[in-house]
Design goal:
The structure holds 2 protein chains of 2 kinds. By secondary structure, chain A is mostly helical. In chain A, 81% of the residues lie in helices and 0% in strands. The longest helix of chain A has 36 residues, at 123-158. Chain A is globular and about 70 Å long. Chain B is an all-alpha fold. Chain B is built from 7 helices and no strands. Chain B has helices at residues 3-29, 34-61, 66-96, 104-107, 109-128, 133-163, 169-203. The chains are: A mainly alpha, B mainly alpha.
Chain lengths: 328, 204
């Protein structure tokens, strides 16, 4: 059993590198020039590893074996991993911001049903996850709206001249550093589950749930996400950093603080959520609170893709599984 | 360069605007002093250029929050532009002062006083904006009102010269050039104050 597991672990680590490469968490800090890109990727990579190891187990367990009690074989795990990868690649090619978490959950449930084990799907857990996908962006929106209103009130009271602006933005940029670090830590736990969830049940079966060896995929996944971020993710940070050049530390803090709280709580209780969707809803909440123009067309597109992603990855799973059956 | 040093650079460049304004204004009142005042005007313009280069270098290379740095970069450019325009006005005055009517200085006194006043107000606004946006807005409004007066005064001055039978076409053209260049300088001073107004609206 171990050889296929090693192969599957390798494939999962490739996915982890891809997830790390697309991590935009530190973009507000590089965009506001609090950190250089080099500092951001090293710091981000380190925090992600810690988050993956400390928080990742619960989330990965939920996705891997909490959703279904079926233990997938090598081929089935490969189908899931490839389906998620294809869904993400196709979505990115079309310019759609897809959630890895949504794709992974959709693929896992779809394959469970396709192989005739629909009765092993834990409906209660699925409902909990679906509820969190609706609740987490709402909390992100409301939280960032309230935080931004509070920040605006503070600014009106505190700021008299340019000296006060400089001072406040400097303080907020340090607060932003903390919020981004917490987000990176939580997302480490959330995102690593997307890569290792399909193989974690096998490790638990092999070594026992309490064994440290069962956590090897999390540790390796965290390292691979860090590698993805350091080697490739710096390009994403450079691009996003330029795109958000007008984002001030106070606005970015409002976005990040809500995101940080929601992603941390979700990772802590072991619920897989989309960090990207929470971030987007926080942006919308902040924008509305600050009375800025919010591109609602983009928001609608993201909302539609959030609903469509699990279905899309499910369709790919179905297609790949049929192809695999034909080939074998 | 830290925040305090950056602030001092802006105050330094705005003080140069004030000093050049006084030199130019005094030259307008007494054109015979232009030759004496011009080197000082040009020296201060060069000094402003080097301060702008220093600040530009700082914005480009240091880790400044772009949201804040872009406004400052715009402001230093407008302040440098005012000095360039005042230097050009000084050169124009120097070039054409030998052909202007004898009583030009006397007639241009109110125009000269307005130029001195506006440059002083601009320097004051740059210093004030660090402590109070609302006070800076009040000063910028005074600059706007003064600029409108400059337009009126220069118009009356030119009209007066045109209607004066004792001035010939050469004198009229020379004086007209000087007045026109002065009004241009004041427009650039007002443009610099507009940057302060926008910063106040943005951050307040």
């Amino acid at each position: 059993m171990e050889d296929p597991l090693i192969f599957l672990t390798g494939v999962a680590m490739l996915l982890a590198i891809g997830i790390g490469a697309n991590d935009e968490t530190f973009a507000p800090l590089t965009g506001s020039k609090r950190l250089t890109v080099n500092q951001a990727v090293v710091m981000g990579g380190s925090i992600v590893i810690i988050g993956a190891v400390i928080l990742g187990f619960k989330v990965a367990k939920t996705v891997g074996s909490g959703i279904t009690s079926t233990i997938f074989d090598t081929n089935q795990i490969l189908v899931i991993l490839f389906s998620v990868s294809i869904a993400l690649i196709l979505g990115s090619w079309k310019g759609l911001p897809l959630s890895t978490t949504h794709a992974m959950v959709g693929a896992t449930i779809a394959l469970t049903i396709i192989i005739g084990k629909a009765d092993t799907v834990n409906v209660e857990v699925v409902y909990k996850i679906l509820a969190s996908w609706i609740i987490s962006p709402v909390i992100g929106f409301v939280g960032s709206f309230l935080v931004m209103k509070g920040i605006l009130r503070l600014k009106r009271w505190y700021i008299k001249g340019l000296d006060d602006v400089d001072r406040l933005e400097t303080y907020f940029s340090y607060g932003l550093l903390i919020a981004v670090s917490v987000t990176a830590f939580s997302r480490g736990g959330n995102d690593v589950s997307n890569a290792v969830a399909p193989i974690l049940p096998s490790y638990i079966l092999l070594y026992g749930e309490r064994s440290l060896m069962a956590r090897i995929p999390l540790f390796l996944g965290g390292i691979c996400m860090a590698i993805g971020l350091i080697v490739i993710g710096r390009r994403v940070l450079k691009t996003l950093g330029n795109d958000i050049v007008e984002l001030s530390p106070t606005t970015a803090l409002s976005v990040q603080s809500s995101t940080a709280i929601v992603t941390f709580v979700a990772a802590f209780i072991g619920i897989p959520i989309s960090g990207t969707h929470v971030l987007v809803s926080s942006f919308v909440g902040t924008g509305i609170a600050a009375k800025s123009n919010v591109n609602m067309n983009t928001v609608k597109k993201i909302a539609v893709s959030a609903v469509f992603t699990p279905i899309f990855s499910g369709i790919i799973v179905f297609t790949l599984w049929q192809l695999f059956k034909l080939w074998s | 360069m830290n925040r305090e040093e950056q602030k001092q650079k802006f105050i330094e460049i705005s003080n140069l605007v004030r000093e050049v304004g006084i030199l130019y204004g005094n030259s307008l009142k007494d054109p015979s002093k232009t030759f004496e005042n011009l080197p000082a005007i040009l020296e201060k313009e060069d000094l402003a250029d080097s301060i702008q280069d220093e600040l530009d270098d700082h914005f480009r290379t240091q880790r400044n929050i772009p949201y804040l740095a872009l406004d400052r970069a715009k402001l230093v450019r407008r302040l440098d532009d005012t000095l360039d325009e005042l230097a050009l006005a000084g050169r124009t005055l120097n070039a054409f002062s030998s052909n202007i009517p004898d009583n030009f200085g006397e007639k241009a006194t109110s125009l000269a006083d307005l130029v001195i006043s506006i440059t002083s107000l601009l320097a004051e606004a740059v210093e004030t904006i660090y402590t109070s946006f609302s006070d800076a807005l009040v000063i910028c409004e005074k600059i706007e009102n003064s600029k409108d007066k400059v337009v009126e005064v220069s118009f009356e001055l030119e009209k007066d010269m045109m209607n004066n039978e004792n001035s010939d076409w050469k004198q009229f053209i020379s004086a007209s050039r000087i007045i026109s260049r002065t009004v241009s300088s004041v427009s650039v001073l007002k443009a610099a104050s507009e940057v302060l107004v926008l910063m106040s609206y943005k951050y307040e």
